[in-house]
Amino acid sequence: MTLQVTVIIQGQDPKSGGISREGYEFTKISDIKNIFDLYKILPNKTAFDYILNFLSKKEWFFKSNLSNFGDIIHFLNYSMAPNKNIFTNKKVLITLHEAEFAPAGRGFRTHFRNYLNGISKRKFFYWLNHADFLVVNSTQTYNRLLNLYNLKKEKIVVINLGVDNSYKPLNKEDSSDDIGYVGGFGPHKRVEKLIKDFIDCSNKESNLKIAGRLTSQASKDFSKYTNNKRISFLGPIDESYMVNFYNSLKYFVSPTSHEGFGLPILEAVACGIPTFIYYDADITEEVAKYAIKIHRLEEIYQYDYSYLKKEFLKKSNEVRYLYSWNKMIEKTIELYRSLL
What we know:
The chain has about 350 residues and is α/β, with parallel strands linked by helices. About 40% of the residues lie in helices and about 15% in strands. The longest helix is centred in the middle third of the chain and has 21 residues. It is globular.
């Protein structure tokens, strides 16, 4: 029986990170009414497109398609929702990846960026109070929402993201000495911190592989490192090769300052790769507990590698058992059924 549920996603490219990867997994659900990908319907090809979509086109799209929506409308990001609730007699679910609103990018002039941030902030607080249910990916976001805002516990449900069952250790010889990173390049990702730390390391035999879709700003910021033969910018890696990429590494390091979840960390651990995060990183305990905390990159060489491999093979088994996309989908479907 088809559930009368409409899901609004923000992209479905697994190479683009957690939110888009989550959207990709939702496209596999066969027993819901429909899915709309706003990144395809209203693409942001230029800054002008972004502004029009942000200010008016999304509102127009929702009003034009009210008759096509199910009894439940689930937005996988609050920024995809209209500024106010226009869905009469329908339940609205909003997935929040963090407990604060997401500011606009650095590509706009300060005064206009502040204007867009004001709209985004108002929308965040509107849906915080008017959504029928809030879905969060971690207990950290759950606890922060309760501590920061006057919300009822019953309104928030935690549904962790998952790891595909293809993410596992591959039988290979440990001949690589490569350190790797995969993910986004926003300021909080602190990729340049990792690069500078790598350059300062006393070990000059290792290489640094950085994977992910570079923004125009990141391309400018990192242009000064392109001549360093030990640092490679690989660009986005196809989903079919991701497991091989993780398994090609000796170490995986996430330099991020904070994450709503931290999917690449779990994926690396699922592949049995010794994984590190920085002590000052604010990452949910569900994920952080599987990584080793460091102050400086140099510290990764202080560990006995044979011991690390054994420990992370154990962690791989646990992560692959506890976190899967199938479990995420099952819990989400259970939530839908409870509301219909």
